[in-house]
Structures are given as structure tokens and as C-alpha cells.
Amino acid sequence: MKIEFNSFLTLILVLFWILINSLNYSDIYFINDKVIILSNLLCLEIFLILLIAKKTKNIFLTYLAFFLLIFYVFRIITLLLFDPNPYLNQYDFNAEDYIKTLEVILVFLPFIALCTIIGNKLFYKKFIFSKKHNHNKYFNIVMFIAFTSFLPNILTSLDIGVISYFSSFLRPYYPQGTIVLLTIVYYLTHISYLNKKQKFKMYIFFVLVVLISLFSGNKSSVFGLALSFFTVFLVVKRTIFIKIKHVLYSFFLLIFALYTYFLGNIIRDIVWRGEEGLSSIVTIISSINIDYIFNLSSFFASHFFGRIGFLDYSVRIIKNLSTYDSLFTFNQYFQSFIDNLIPGSIFNSARISTALTYFDNYSAIPTQTELSTVGYNSNAITVFGEFYSLGSGTFFGSILLVFYLLIVIIVFSIFIKKSKSETQYNILLVLFLGFFNLTLNSFGIDWGLQSLVINLTFFMIFKKYYI
Q: pLDDT tens digits for 9-21?
């Protein structure tokens, strides 16, 4: 028995809709009847998006629906089920704040969907391969690029003088996350042409991605790789079918991912406190058991679901529009984009997402120098919060959002028309989907455009090896 992925998402949506309308919210001060009504309208919009996605085979609409289900609709359910995490209490959210945010989402969503429909039409390209095509000609170079992607992070963390300095300089321009995506595309596109030895090298690389990420304190090591595989699989296969065994595999993967998320929190604390010895980490790992996690389940669930609750991040920005008006300016975005794209610092300007917490505490826009004295902290802004703030409301915000997405879509369509192989074509679609994801959960347009420029430049330099 199998079910098409869009149909599977529709079933999940129906389940979430039933839960939203069944759970009691009488004692929850930030949920009222209007929040539930607007949540129903959001479910309706997602249902329509899934219908159009299935009819037009639009993977970007499918991803949009998936994103909204996990990070927005599911968040509403967790707010009904669990105690809110400290994030809500810190910013004093109430029902009116969620009502306003859901209204903004309902206005912006049709425009985002329209842009993906246009992009889907512009991006279409069909390839016919010659039987003499050498699919694995550059396999060793692809794997060399993949394995060397670990070096900038490792050498930077070792703190060995000029080598570490050079590595920290190189790291943004040799983007490991992008290289992981490119490697997954190569793997899934060429899987039927790879021999056992080549597949084994791929598996070793993917395992190292998780382990090195986890032991450096990354909480989303498994989640990140799983999401990367899902993104690429959606692009390469276009249509995904779900079987019962896939649901079971996903359940066990979720349990493992939650475990590593919890473990990543602990390891990050160890690393930040200077206790980086392997023996300390091994001791932590061995001491964690199911009972220990179960006893902390309430706190853990609240914390975890708060972390993936992008609805809350949207509420924060939309609620405090007048407070952040001096931060969300085109001048601030431009300076941040330039400073974080090129070596050195011309304006000494911090990224928008890293400046938010400092702005909350000191009511001032920090420089990069000032941020370095208080520690790194980045906050999701989300596409809804960001463009609502930039446009000072939904009207101009919608216009800016459409303009921004269409410009990027046109740029990608030019690159796609020049792609010379299915692998290159898939890579460009994956890079756009990555940009689209980064726009949805937005850590700032400045960050998104910087990543876009670096990713496309990296691809243009190495594209001849990905054929």
C-alpha cells in the first residue's frame, strides 16, 4: 500500500484540523475563538495549495504546504497541548497578537503561492541523455569536494594561528551545507550508476556530516540531514509515494533525531564552557537513558516545540512593528549584506537576525564589534514578520514580497536555461528550494541574499564536475 505525498500531507492536514477543533482551549489565555477560526482558514488555504500542487506537479507548492504544516499548524496544536515555553512569556503574547499574525499569514500566502506557480513554469526543462554519457566521470572530484568541506570548520576550531585564521576566512565561501546538498543531488541522480564502493564512500560522508555536526554542538544534525535528503528527493523524484514502512522508518528517525537534539544541547553547553574532552562527552552520552528523558518530557516538549514554532517568531516581529522600525530598514539590510558577503568590514554592520536580541536589551542597533562582546545569538524573523515590517503593513509588504521572489525566480530561470545536465538542473532547483526555505523561515533578507550569491558562485565554479 502506498500513497502519493501530497495526499499524505492532506491526511495530516485533516488530522491537524480535527485536533484544532477538538482540543479544549478555555483555560489558555492566548487562544480564543477567533484564533481557532483563523487557524481553520489557514488549514483551508493549505488544502487549496495542496490541490494546486498535485494538479500542476509543483514541488515548491508541496514544500510550502509541508513547511506550513510543520512549523505553523502543528505549532497551534502544541500550544493547545503543552505549557508554552519561556519565549511566549518573555514577549507577553496574547490572543490578539496571534489573531493579527494569522491575518497577515492569510494575506501573504496567496502571493507566495502565485510566485511559486510562476517559478514552476519558468523552471521547466527536459533532458535527453546519450547512452554514451559517462555518469561517474568526476565522482572522485565530487567526493574530494565533499570531504574537504569539513576542513574549514575543523581547522578553525583547533585555533592554530594563521591556519585557523585562513580557515575562518575561507569557511563562508566553501559552504559545507551547500556542498552536502550538492552531494545528495549527485548521489540520488546517479544512484543507479554507482557501484558498491562508490556508494560506501557516500555513506561514510553522510555519517561524518551527522557526527561532526553533533559533536560540535549542533542540535539539528540529524534533522538537518534528513530535511536535506527530503528536499533533494522531492526535486529529483518530483512525485513521492509514501509506504507504511516509510512511516515506520520516519517514526524511528524522529525518535533518534529528538535524542540527538537533546544530546546536541548538552554537548553545546560543554563546548561553550570549555569542557571539550571526549571523555566528558562520552560520559554524558552513557548517562542519558529513556527514564531520564521521560522525566524531563514536559520541559523538553515545551522547549522543542517552541524552537520549531515559527508562528511565535512571526508574532514577535508583527507585534513589535513600531519597536523594530529603525532596525528593519533597506539601509541596514544593504550594509549588513555587504559586510557579511565580502572579507573585512566596511560598515561594521551586524546581520538583522543577530541584532534582534541586542536591540531588545539595549534599544540600539549593534555593530559587529558590539555583538562580539555579548556573544552570538540569532533569531528567526520569518517571511511574514520580515515583509510585514519592511512594508509597514500587509499592502506594501505583499508588493515587496512578490517583487523580491520574482527577481530571484528570474535570476534562477536564466541559470536553469543554461544548465547542461540533469544533475546541474536538479542542483539549481535544490538551491532555489533552499533559498525558498530560507525565505520562509527567514533569518533576514541580508542573510538569504548572501547565501544565494555564495551558493550560485560556488556552483558556477564547480558545476563542470556535477554532470
A: 999 999 999 999 9
Strand stretches in 192-283, DSSP E: 241-243
Q: Is 179 exposed, middle or buried (0-12, 13-18, 19+ CB in 10 A)?
A: buried
**CA nearest to 357, candidates 91, 83, 75:** 91
Question: Cα–Cα distance between 392 and 127 in angstroms, integer?
Answer: 44
Distance CA 102, CA 98 (A): 6
CA dihedral 48, 51, 57, 58 (to 10 degrees): 10
Res 284: pLDDT: 54
- Residues 452-463: what's their mean pLDDT? 93
Q: How far is CA 233 from the centre of its chain?
A: 16
Residues with Cβ < 8 Å from 176, sequence gap 6 or more? Answer: 149, 150, 152, 153
pLDDT category at 34 given cuts 50, 70, 90 is very high
CA 369: distance to chain centroid? 27
**At 4, which helix (H) or strand (E)?**
strand 2-4
The Cα-based distances of 452 to 25, 40, 173 in angstroms read 42, 35, 11
Provide the 8-state DSSP code for 349.
Answer: B
Tell me if 410 sits within 8 A of 123, measured CB to CB.
no
* Domains in the chain: boundaries: 2-124+309-323+376-465, 178-307
Residues 278 and 288: their CA atoms lie apart, in Å, by 16
3-state secondary structure of 378: coil
Distance CA 64, CA 181 (A): 19
Residues in the chain: 467
Query: Based on C-alpha coordinates, what's the Rg of the chain?
Result: 22
Q: What ranges in 23-149 are assigned the alpha helix state H?
A: 33-56, 59-68, 74-81, 86-91, 95-123, 139-148
Cell numbers at residue 137, please? 566521470
Query: DSSP state, 366?
Result: P
Residues 243-302 have pLDDT tens digits of 777 667 667 766 766 666 666 666 665 555 554 445 555 555 555 555 555 555 555 555
- Amino acid at residue number 97: D
Q: If we measure between CA atoms, which residue out of 83, 140, 464 comes closest to residue 306?
A: 83
Beta bridge partners of 3: 242
One-letter amino acid identity for 193? Y
Continuous H helices in 124-220: 139-148, 151-158, 162-170, 176-190, 196-215
* Euclidean distance between CA atoms 102 and 95, whole angstroms: 11
Instruction: Tell me the CA distances in angstroms from 346 to 33, 130, 370, 433, one per residue in order.
Output: 51, 50, 15, 31
Q: What is the pTM of this model?
A: 0.86
